[in-house]
């Protein structure tokens, strides 16, 4: 494991972390290559699906329970 260099303004700061983030979007990064837009769309679809299941579950349960039997 490499150790961080403690030094002046040339070795740290905001600029050094940007290079590490850009490595995730290069061809030599391991894993599946998915654009951020695809991740956003899939996340919104998942949230919508869970919300729909919640609403359908509430509607289904309200039809099973007779009125006034709670």
UniProtKB/TrEMBL annotation:
Keyword set includes Protein transport: yes
Primary localisation category: endoplasmic reticulum
What InterPro entries does this protein's entry cite? Answer: Sec61-beta/Sbh, SecG/Sec61-beta/Sbh
Q: Which Pfam families match?
A: Sec61_beta
A GO biological-process term = intracellular protein transport
* Localisation: Endoplasmic reticulum membrane
Membrane topology, as annotated, equals: Single-pass membrane protein
Q: Which stretches are transmembrane?
A: 34-56
Keywords from the UniProt entry: Endoplasmic reticulum, Membrane, Protein transport, Translocation, Transmembrane, Transmembrane helix, Transport
**One cellular component term from this protein's GO annotations in UniProt:** Sec61 translocon complex
Q: Which domain of life is it from?
A: Eukaryota
What is stated as this protein's family in its record? Belongs to the SEC61-beta family.
Q: What is this protein called?
A: Protein transport protein Sec61 subunit beta
Q: Which organism is it from?
A: Linum tenue
